[in-house]
Amino acid sequence: MNIVEQTGMFVTTRIIPFVKPQQLKLFSFGLQALSLTPYKSLGSNARQIVANVHTASSKIYRVVSNDKMLKNFHRILIASELVTKTSYVNVDFSTFCGFQALVFAVQTGIGRALPVWNNSLTYPIDKPGSQNIFVLDEIKKLGETIGFSPRFVFDRGFWIPCVMKFLLERKIIFYLRIKQGQHLEWIRESGRKNKKQKRKKNKKREEAYRLNDWSKDKRRSYQSIWL
Question: In the chain, at which end, N or C, are there fewer CB atoms within 10 A of the end residue's CB?
Fold first, then answer.
């Protein structure tokens, strides 16, 4: 069986069955135009599938602007079982013409990582911290969609205390590349009690968490760390 036959069988058995019937024609068009055809532009790719310029323009617009179409990819991701609780999922930002695409790609162990989730963020960012919130929201959405959190692999650009705190509090296993001379330390402290709490006996000890980012340390630091 050659690559064309393998691709056709995969699409027929592993993708099409999980697309809603009312969106099947439009989804199939988008699949042909954007996934199975070398990309040049939205219009150019659409015209390679549909000869009529007006029809091609209308169909490709509906493909990229229909939010309901995204739900099909969620069902395909769940059914494919590409991501498991022990999977290693790379997290990366890629810049394209004024906006950044956040991509989650599962490591296959036999070649390049396979993209399984993405969303884009348009610049400039109006509110401080919006990029961090965006990353955390997408991690939440992936977990809610597949029902669990895989093991995330972050590059140095994600050396962000609020992201690390989010993962640690939810006990999500992650790998982080950090520069030599830095390390990540998660410190547990006794929580402060107010006057009323002090009067109560046998009160359970409260714990607060603080994330420290030490850029300099006398000890030998690690270039990468696993938590």
Answer: N
